[in-house]
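Aim 2, interim progress. The first record below pairs a target sequence with its C-alpha cells.
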Amino acid sequence: MSAAAFNVDVVIFGGGAAGLWLLDELRRAGYAAVLLEAHALGAGQTIASQGILHGGLKYTLDGLFSPAAEAIREMPQVWRECLAGRRAPELGGVRLRSPHCYLWRTREWMSRLGMLGAKVGLRVKPVKLERAEWPAALAGCAGEVYRLDEQVIEPGSFLETLAQGNAAWLLKVDAERVQLDCGAPGRVASIRIEQGAVGGVCDRDQTRATAGRDGPGQRPLLEGKATTGGRVLDLRPRAVVLTAGRGNAELRQCVGLPAELMQLRPLHMVYVRGTLPPLHGHCTDGARTRVTITSTGDTQGRTVWQVGGQVAEDGVRMAELDLLRHAKAELATVLPGLSLDGLEWSADRIDRAEAATAAGQRPDDAFCRREGNVITAWPTKLVLSPRLARQVRKLLEPPAGDTIELEAALRDWPRPTVAIPPWETERTWRHDH
C-alpha cells in the first residue's frame, strides 16, 4: 500500500496533560507537530487526577524549602492566567471545581501554618479563616482552618479545551498499525501509520507500538497484513516526544532505548458518592498529608469525592474492601460530625509514571531527556505541564516543517475522544463495609 509521506518537526506520542500542552505550545510557535493517541485523551493519570494546581505547600510541611517546592511555586500563577484567558494556551473554557483549597487539622501543628508559606518563600500562602468562613464539611473540626489559593480544575474539561483547539493535529491510531522505523537506537527515521479500525488493542493508560530494530531497509511490518482499505501515512519527524505516561517504557524499547528510565509509584484512590457537601482540601498531620479530598459531580447529579493523600498511599498494600473500611474510618476522624451514612464507596488503582530516582521517591521536577531524536518526558505533576513544555522546547531545533499539505492529509483521519472519569466507568460500588 502506498503511503503519503510528510516531513514534520515533531511527533508526540500520548495525549494526556503533558502531550496536549506541549502540542499547543509547539503549534503556537510554528512547529509542524502531530500528536498520536492509541486510546483516549488523558486515559490513566490525567483523567484520574484530583485537579489541584499545587503551589508547593505540601512539599514544605517540614518547614524546609525543598527543590520540589522551588520547581512548582511559579506554576499556579501560570495556570491562573491561562484559566483567565490572559495567557496562552487560553483555558477560559475549563470548568473550575474550586478557586481554592482548604487546610485543616491536626493538633497544635496548625498554628505554624500561618508563617510557613512566608518563611519558605511560597507564592501561594495559607490564609487563616474565621469560623464563619469555614466550609460546611469542616464545621465539626477543632483547631484552625486555612484557605490556600490553589485552584482545582475538572481534568476532563481541561482535556476537552486543549483538544478542541488542536483537533486538526490529533490522530487516533491503532497501536498495532503503527510502525516506528529506526536506523539506530533513539533515531526514528519514519513513523508509518495505517488508517483502519482503531481502538480496543491497548490498555487504558498505555500506548503500544511496533518498531523494527534492524536498521534501514527492514521489511515494513504492515506488509502482508489484512487492511481495511484505509490510507497509510508516513511521518518523517525531526524529533519524537514521548509523553505517554507509563507507555513511555514500551515506546522506549520500540526505539531501542532502555525502559529503566521510568519508575511507577502506585496509588489506590478512593471514591465516595452520594449526598455530600463540596470540599476541596488537605488534612495535614505533621509533615504528611493525611487525606486530600476533591469534589465533583457525576452524570446522575450525585456529589463524588476523590480521596487521596496518605490514605491512597497506604491503600496500595490493601485489598479494596480493607481500604474502604480504612478510608471511612479516616474520614470519620478528620471530618468529625459529618454523616457518612447512605454513601457509596469504590476504589481504583492508579500508577504514577515518572522518571526513575535512586531511592524510588517522587522526582523534584518535570523531566525530559533527548537521546538521538527521541525525547522522553514526564511532567511528574499535572501542574508542571507548562514547565515541561518549556523544557522540551529547549531541546528542539527551530521549526522547519510545512503544515499546509499535512493539514489537508489529516483532515479525514479519526480523532481521539476524552477519557471517561473513573467514577463514571463500570465498577463495584459498596454501601456498607
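The second target in this work package is listed in the same format:
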Amino acid sequence: MYNILITGGAGYKGTKLTEVFLQEGHKVTILDNFMFGFNPVLGFVDYHNCTILKRDIRNICEADLKGFDFIFHLAGISGYPACEANPHAAEVVNVNSTKKIVSFLAKEQVLVYASTTSFYGSSGEIKDENSVPEPVSLYGKTKYEAEKICMERENSIALRFATLFGVSRRMRCDLLVNDFVYKAINERSLVLFDSKSIRTYLHLKDAVKAYKMTLTQTDKMINSVFNVGSNDMNFSKLELAKRINKHVDFKIIDSDLPDFDSRNFVINYDKINKLGYNADISIDEGIRELIKLYSFYKPFSLYQALDCL
C-alpha cells in the first residue's frame, strides 16, 4: 500500500479518487482549500487511513509534501469560464503553484499531473501525444505550461483527460455533458454554438481507473504523457445533444453564432489502450446517471466560489 497525497482532493475528481484509494487501503492525505465547502469530504473523516489538510496550494510548503510515495496534483482553477473570470488567479494557481510543488519534491517521489486534452486547439484534426499543443484559451495555456513544468522532472506522469462527465461528491455542472443534461431537463431547450465542433468525453469513474494504473503500471508510464479517454467517444456537440434527446424531451436550437470556447479536435487514445486501459462507461449510462441526479439536485454557482479568490 502507498502513502498518497491528493492536491485538490475535495474537488470533482479528487473526491472520487480519494474514495477509491481509501477503499483499497492506501493512506491518503487530502490537501485542499475547500473553496466549495467541507461537505464533499465529510464521509472520509471516519477513515483511519485518511488525513485532511486545509491548505491553499499557493501557500504550500516543503513539509506538506514530505513522506509521500505518490503526489496526485489535481488542484487548480479548472475550465474555460473559471479561468477567464479570474486570469491572475488562473496563472498563479495553475502555473506558479505547480512550479513550487515540483521544486519541493524529492527525486524518488512520483508526481502524477492532472492534465487535459483542452490544449489541442481547434483544428478539427486527429491528435495524439506527439501533436503540437495549440491552446485556444487561458485554461489550456496554463494547463500546458504546468504540464511542461511537471514533465521536466524525473519520475513524473501526465494524464491528458478528455472532457469529464458524471456524478461526484463535489458536483460540477459546468462540464459540457453535465451542463447539457441539466439544461435539457430544466430549460427544455438547448442552444448549440459551433454545433459541429468535436470533443471527446470520459466518465469520472474511468478517469479514476487511469489514475489507478499509475500505481500498478508505474514502470510503464513513468516520464510519459498519456491521452486518457475512448476512441469511441469523440462526438460533435450536435451528436451529443441528440444522444441526450433520446432520454429527455427538449428542443435543440442550432445557432449560427460562434462559441467563445472554440475547441474542436478528435483524440487518439492508442497509447494508453496498449497498456490495457479501456473506458467502461458509455455516454448513455452517464446521461441516465445525470438525469437521476438532476431530479432533486440544484447546482452551486461556480462564481460564488470564484469571488473568494
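The CA atoms of residues 10 and 38 lie 8 Å apart. This observation will shape the mutagenesis plan for the next reporting period.
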